[in-house]
Write a structure and sequence with these properties.
Layout: H1 8-16, H2 34-47, H3 56-69, H4 71-76
């Protein structure tokens, strides 16, 4: 999933370049929110060859599903779980 050599400075610059406004490509949300910001960040990281996700919308669906499945555990501060996405591509 992570490829190439990147420093925290280059990634911080990529993130700081993300405009805090509603993108024209977004059709699922009505306003700028944290999910839109995360998707914008993933697009920026993928566009600059930092990560290789494939389909960001499928990743979003997977994450929403995992959140719903673990809602009770999240609310009560239950044990942490580690998941490996089925949507992300292998390390390049």
């Amino acid at each position: 999933m992570i490829r190439g050599v990147h420093t925290s400075d280059t990634i911080a610059q990529l993130m700081s370049d993300i405009p805090m406004q509603f993108p024209v490509w977004e059709q699922k949300e009505d306003s700028f929110n944290c999910r839109v910001l995360v998707k914008e960040a993933l697009h920026a990281l993928e566009d600059h060859k930092v990560i290789d996700i494939g389909d960001i919308d499928k990743l979003e669906e997977e994450l929403i599903s995992l959140g719903e499945e673990n809602d009770g555990s999240i609310v009560t501060g239950g044990p942490y779980k580690v998941y490996f996405s089925k949507c992300c591509n292998d390390v390049v």
